[in-house]
Amino acid sequence: MSSTLPSTRSPADDAGSAVVEFVLVGALLVLLATGLFQLVLTLHVRNIMLSAASEGAHVGALADLTPNDGAARASELATAALGGMTVESTARTVAVGDGEVVEVTLTAPVPVIGLWGVGSMSVTAHAIAEADDG
Fold it and tell me: Distance (Å, rounded) from C-alpha 103 to C-alpha 21?
C-alpha cells in the first residue's frame, strides 16, 4: 500500500494571488458602498420632499391663501432643495369630521443614478385649514 504524501507548497505558488483577491474584495466593497449611497440619497430626497409638502400644506391651510398656493410653495421648496429636480405638486381640501384639511402631494423621480431616476415616489402632508372668520 502506497500512501501519497500531501504536496508541500512553496511561497512562489501563491505569487499574484494578492492582486486577484484585492480586485475581488475591492469590487464587492465598491458595490456595497454604491448601494448604501443610493439608499441614503433616496431617503434624503424623500425627507426633503416630506418637509416641503408639510410646509406647503401649512401655507395652503392659512385663511387668506388657497391650497394651490400651498402646492406652489411646496414645489418651489422641493425644487430648490433638490438642485432643480422636477417635482410635481397637487393640493386639495379634504373634509374630515366637522373641519377641513389641506392635503399637499409631491411626486418626484426616485434617484437611481445620482439624482436621475426611473420610477417615481410620492409623499403627502396634511394641515388643518384655518377657519375664515372674516
Answer: 54
β-strands 88-96, 99-109 pairing: antiparallel
Question: What's the whole-number mean pLDDT along residues 82-110?
Answer: 91
Q: Classify residue 63 by its DSSP letter.
A: T
| Cell numbers that stand for 73 in this block | 410653495
SS3 label, residue 36: helix
* 13: three-class secondary structure by DSSP: helix
pLDDT score of 19: 86
pLDDT digits (tens, 9 = 90+) for 45-91: 999 999 999 999 999 999 899 999 999 999 999 999 988 888 999 99
Q: Which three cell numbers stand for residue 83?
A: 438642485
Are 105 and 91 contacting, i.e. CB atoms less than 8 angstroms apart?
Answer: yes
